[in-house]
Specification:
mainly alpha; about 75% helix; about 130 residues; elongated
Length: about 130
Amino acid sequence: MAYKRTCSQADCDNPVYARGFCRKHYNMMWRKGRVGTIYEKIEQSNMTADEIYELNSIRREIERSKQMYNNVIGLDARVKWRKKITKLEHDLKESESRIERLKQQRAEKRRQKAMKEQRETENQTETME
Ligand SMILES: [Zn+2]
């Protein structure tokens, strides 16, 4: 088949080696033991592994801070954790909107890439005839 797929990682145009990734990114995911789950998340969300990690770690930190807020004793400590939660929630919103913009750019780039690959496939079919 002349159709050539490229890596699932955003902004990587290397050919697919395994599970939707190029050799480099596949090896990277494999070393982290995250090939299966990360690949599915990337496919579903149109996000990169780094972006998924970024959002997850902020969300985890918010959860931890909320637990701290509920368990600390004394007004000062509660004010401190309340401030931290507010800051983290702000960070999360910023990350989410930045990543949302990147996702839209990426979707557009993928559409163009798919069209280009489609044209190439058609050209190759023509020369074979
Ligand atoms: Zn790649």
